[in-house]
Design goal:
The protein is of the alpha/beta class. It has eleven helices and 18 strands. The strands form three sheets. Strands 1, 2, 5, 6, 7, 14, 15, 16, 17 and 18 form a ten-stranded mixed sheet that branches. Strands 8-9-10-11-13-12 form a six-stranded mixed sheet, with helices on one face. A hairpin with a 2-residue loop joins β3 and β4. The protein starts with a helix and ends with a strand.
């Protein structure tokens, strides 16, 4: 049986294009190869909502962020899982709204992201306590109201922290874990407020779910702000997580794009950069160009045997457009022209080379 399953997987790799056409979204197909199911995971980076952004969203007394992110709707519609990092806390509208350095973001922003299909959200970062314990607890309670969204990294209780996130999508059993490795300058009022990374903690969590899941996803806040190169510590953490069985590592915090890498069978996005942010205005585009990553997985089952394989890997650059701190829009480079970003073709070449520094078989759109 196992030898036959290996032959099935080899056939999948050799015929991945044909399989992608045959296995449509949310459909399980029977064939001589057994059952095969497809899952598409898409991901973008940091949403860190500066005051200029929420002021731009204010319209007749309400915050409307739809126009800023409407260009990603086609991506959302083609994805089963859609991830982003909520960097600025949804700390409760009753506390008032603030930008840098102590953020508090209108709840309508997160509601808009949810309405566009984002269903995987990380919250472990250095801004989790920007509005104190009250803001953190408000944030936990807000996200707990949305059962269709899986979040991680910050918790109201120790029981919540210990209850690891495992869910089913398209027949895949998926675990989502979230940590921060960014140095924490303050003592946490309660340890469970934030998942601070350590090898012991990660291994303990992963050991608990080792036999329960088809796909293990770890989102981690790490690295050096503004650097397009992963640090040695990032590389070391990625190697460790790959060794203990993580399938996908999603990196955030640097606010800029870093390379993608395969470590064994583990795909690592060292940093997706910013998705929506008020950083870097003018001619400095490093924090205004982010990465959309997309992975197609196929799960093959034959009798009691099963295997998950990475079928296809895509990427696309995103640009945060604005004019004098107004009219914010996230624009995919596939919709780009020189009237939006002068010299965009050169920037596309530059940042795609960053993405592909360690890997060649990622298809950039």
């Amino acid at each position: 049986m196992k030898k036959f399953l290996v032959l099935i997987i080899i056939c999948l790799f050799l015929c991945s294009c044909a399989m992608s056409e045959q296995v449509s979204k949310n459909v399980t197909t029977d064939s001589k190869f057994g059952q095969s199911t497809k899952l598409t995971l898409s991901m973008v980076g940091d949403a860190i909502i500066y005051s200029s952004i929420y002021k731009d969203a204010l319209d007749e007394g309400k915050y409307d962020f739809c126009k800023m992110i409407e260009s990603i709707k086609p991506i959302a519609e083609s994805s089963d899982l859609l991830y982003y990092n909520q960097e600025s806390i949804i700390g409760g509208d009753n506390l008032g709204f603030y930008g840098f350095p102590k953020f508090n973001t209108p709840a309508n922003f997160a509601k808009t992201m949810i309405s566009y299909g984002f269903n995987l959200v990380s919250r472990a970062n250095e801004h989790a306590l920007d509005q104190g314990e009250k803001g953190l607890l408000n944030s936990c309670n807000f996200w707990n109201k949305y059962s269709e969204v899986t979040t991680g990294g910050s918790f109201c209780t120790s029981d919540e922290q210990e209850s690891l996130k495992i869910f089913t999508k398209n027949g895949f059993k998926i675990a989502f874990l979230n940590y921060t490795d960014v140095p924490w300058e303050e003592t946490l009022p309660k340890e469970y407020y934030l998942n601070v990374y350590s090898e012991d903690r990660a291994k303990e969590d992963l050991d608990k779910i080792a036999d329960e899941t088809d796909l293990k996803i770890v989102a981690i806040h790490w690295g050096e702000e503004g650097s397009n190169e992963p640090t040695e510590r990032q590389k070391g953490i990625a190697k460790f997580l790959a060794e203990v069985g993580v399938d996908v590592i999603i990196g955030t915090h640097p606010s800029v794009i870093q390379p993608v890498e395969m470590i064994g069978n583990t795909i690592v996005f060292y940093s997706l950069g910013n998705f929506l942010s008020g950083q870097d205005k003018g001619d400095d585009y490093n924090k205004r160009i982010g990465l959309l990553g997309q992975i197609d997985f196929i799960k093959v089952e034959y009798g009691s045997e099963k295997k998950v394989v990475l079928d296809k890997l895509y990427g696309e650059l995103l640009f945060i457009d604005s004019k004098d701190g107004r009219d914010y829009r996230v624009i995919p480079f596939s919709d780009m022209d020189d009237s939006i970003l002068k010299g965009f073709k050169d920037k596309k070449i530059k940042y795609e080379s960053v993405v592909k520094k360690y890997i060649s078989n990622i298809e950039m759109r």
